Amino acid sequence: MNITQEKIDDLNAVIKVNVTEADYKDKVDVVLKDYRKKASIPGFRKGHVPMGMVKKMMGTNAMVDEINKILSEELQKYLTTEKLDVLGNPLPKLEDQASIDWENQKDFEFRYDVGLAPSFDISVGDKFKFDFYKIKVDKKDIDKQVSDIAKRYGKMSNPDVAEATDMLYGKFEELDGDNLKEEGISNSSIIVIESVTDKKLQKELIGSKSGDIVELDPKKISEHEGDQATALGITPAELKSLKSKFRFTVEKINRVEPADINQELFDKVFGPNAVKSEDEFRAKIEEQVSMSLVTESDRKLKADIQTEFLDKLKLSLPDSFLKRWIQASNEKPVTPEQIEEEYDQYSKGLKWQLIENKLIEKNEVKVSHEEVVEHTKGLLAQQMASMGMPTNNDEELTETANRVLQNQEEAKNIYMMMYDQKMMDVYKTTFKIKEKEVSYDEFVKIVSK
Questions:
Q1: Half-sphere exposure in the Cβ direction for 115 (13 Å, CA)
Q2: What is the second-level CATH architecture of the domain 156-257?
Q3: Which residue of 214, 246, 279, 355 shows the fewest CB atoms closer than 10 Å?
Q4: Residue 211: enclosing H or E segment and its boundaries?
Q5: d(Cα 75, Cα 84) in Å, to the nearest integer?
Q6: How far is 329 from 91, CA to CA, in rounded Å?
Q7: Cβ 88 vs Cβ 324: under 8 Å
Q8: In Å, how far are 8, 28, 63, 91 from 109, measured between CA atoms?
Q9: Is 295 exposed, middle or buried (0-12, 13-18, 19+ CB in 10 A)?
Q10: Which 3-state string (H, E, C) describes 166-182?
Q11: What is the pLDDT of residues 44-74, one digit of tens each?
């Protein structure tokens, strides 16, 4: 067997694999002999089918299977030995496949297109400057959190008349002019009055009673397209082309009566006796809000770092190859138009992945299995504490953590989370970071830009 590489340019190459009969013959013979032993064919005793007949029946299929196995193994070995930094997987040239005469050929040449990762270097230091937004926790933020928690643990009631903080349960029905549209959209869902973006519609809904009918534009019931689509029971894509008005018939009014701010609520939220007064309750909430806001600030910092590196490095990718590979490797059929539509976002994500991998390598960032187990134990302990369960048995926590990590998807997510945390420490200690104190509203405005 002979494997060679022909470089097309810095991002594309063709790998040629020459397979001779000597490479696969012995393996095919073993397969055929094994089949002969087990074959039950009318007119012949088991194990006594003539080898000529076995070869005629199974020879070509066995040869194709063994050659494919050899190609897979040898290609992987070659990529590893030559240290080729490939993107995706090698793609066989389709024109070669069509010209193979499996029945009569003994020797074969297979060619594969390969996409190569761009070669680049990163020099990091304080020449990179970024703003880090330290978000102040205002009293109104704490008040809102307390109010939201009280509602979350409150009781549901069904009053006769709707107020501004209520939800309306009812049916959306598509109209054609003044009449219901034949076979139009019909879906039972809710309207959260506070979330209605159109103030005139919001005012009209306040004071609603069961049986009331309101004509409305569903795109005005929320600022989020996902919520609009869910209310109508359709997809966001279907929503974009929707022009119809709708009739909403109120069937029921749902009101959440907030829970009292007392020891019972404190215990439900933070566990028995973890908090013993409203001041402690608010302090605990402020601590949680502060932590979540740091996460938001970190996310903004990482986004700024991504943008800076992508702009400065201007990496190129083997775009044509990657589009072919996406289509070939996708579990579900995908059209070239769909690939084109989503490729820019995919390309940006892949470029950042290559940059981040280089940063991880340059800064020798590693995450050990032991660290992952300890981190998982911490997550489990938090979850158990919030449910009022004891967390002092370290052996049981370790056993549960190891069981969680047997799920490959869970383990991958936790590893990624820990790499993110370690890389954030690298960014904050390596780059020149200027802290800026802002309110949450100011931060939202900055992010939205």
A1: 16
A2: Roll (3.10)
A3: 279
A4: none
A5: 11
A6: 10
A7: no
A8: 18, 18, 15, 14
A9: exposed
A10: CEEEEEEEEEECCEECC
A11: 777 777 888 878 888 899 999 999 999 999 9
Q: Domain 2-116's class?
A: alpha beta
> What is the number of alpha carbons within 13 Å of residue 244 lying toward its C-beta?
21
Please state the domain extents for the chain. Answer: 2-116, 156-257, 266-301+354-448
Q: What is the sign, positive or negative, of the torsion defined by CA atoms of 39, 43, 49, 55?
A: negative
**Cα 145 vs. chain centroid, distance in angstroms?**
28
Q: Which tokens sit at 434?
A: 């200027």
| Mean pLDDT within 333-344 | 91
**Structure token pair of residue 64:** 């194709």
Q: pLDDT of 346-393, one tens digit each?
A: 999 999 999 999 999 999 999 999 999 999 998 888 787 766 666 667
Instruction: Report the candidate in 415, 200, 149, 417 with the shortest Cα–Cα distance to residue 302.
Output: 417
C-beta separation of 442 from 138 below 8 A: no
Two domains, one topology: 2-116 and 156-257: no
Fill in the amino acid letter for 371: E
Q: Which of 171, 170, 172, 174 is nearest to 245 (CA)?
A: 174
Pairing of strands 167-176, 246-257: antiparallel
Identify which of 270, 266, 265, 268 has the alpha carbon closest to the alpha carbon of residue 288: 270
pLDDT at 126 over 70: no
Structural contact between residues 87 and 116, judged by C-beta atoms closer than 8 angstroms: yes
DSSP characters over 223-266: S-HHHHHHHHTS-HHHHHT----EEEEEEEEEEEEPPPSSHHHH
- Residue 135: is it exposed, middle or buried by C-beta count within 10 angstroms (0-12/13-18/19+)? buried
The side-by-side arrangement of strands in the sheet containing 2-7 is: 2-7, 12-19, 108-116, 86-92
pTM of the model: 0.70
Q: Which residues lie across from 153 on neighbouring strands?
A: none
What single-letter DSSP state applies at residue 219?
G
